[in-house]
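Inverse folding, one chain.
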């Protein structure tokens, strides 16, 4: 769009309401497969890591389970490292980078416990969106009473076993998709 064009939904300068969000959601289409590009790649990792489902998105029940991958045999004497990918769905390299790290490099760093959430926002990943289905940015929603179920689910999971983290790597990217 050039500067004289406006987005076809909403009124410039006015916050979207429910009708604009509903209209936006209706225009979204699946462009890639979370099942094939993420879930299938987690299966072989079960041989080396512990994989836990910590939730599921409410849109399309059964389609968007949420997983963390953890170092096997957690050792309380080792520092904990949290890695998150795909907080915003258009961040393809974050999702694939987290998985690739687990496949190829994590085993070399046995001095750490890893907790990896490779795809925090699977619906947004499939539709290549910054926002979730409710037109909320999960990256801006890691706080109490989060409006983004993706952020809320991960925070609740991490709070259920409060660990101290030596580092958190959130695999962001700038994208033109």
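Residues assigned per position:
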């Amino acid at each position: 769009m050039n500067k004289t064009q406006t987005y076809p939904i909403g009124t410039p300068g006015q916050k979207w309401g429910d009708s604009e969000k509903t209209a936006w959601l209706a225009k979204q289409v699946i462009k890639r497969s979370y099942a094939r590009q993420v879930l299938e790649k987690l299966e072989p990792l079960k041989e080396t890591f512990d994989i836990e489902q910590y939730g599921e998105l409410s849109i399309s029940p059964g389609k968007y389970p949420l997983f963390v991958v953890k170092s096997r045999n957690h050792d309380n004497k080792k520092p904990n490292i949290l890695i998150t990918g795909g907080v915003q769905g258009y961040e393809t390299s974050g999702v694939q980078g987290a998985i690739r790290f687990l496949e190829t490099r994590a085993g070399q760093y046995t001095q750490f416990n890893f907790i990896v959430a490779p795809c925090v926002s699977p619906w947004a990943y499939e539709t290549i969106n910054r926002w979730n289905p409710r037109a909320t940015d999960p990256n801006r929603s890691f706080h109490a009473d989060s409006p983004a179920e993706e952020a809320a689910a991960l925070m609740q999971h991490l709070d259920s076993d409060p660990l101290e983290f030596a580092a958190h790597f959130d695999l962001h990217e700038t994208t033109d998709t």
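Helices lie at 18-26, 34-42, 92-104, 122-127, 149-160. The two ends are 14 Å apart (CA to CA).
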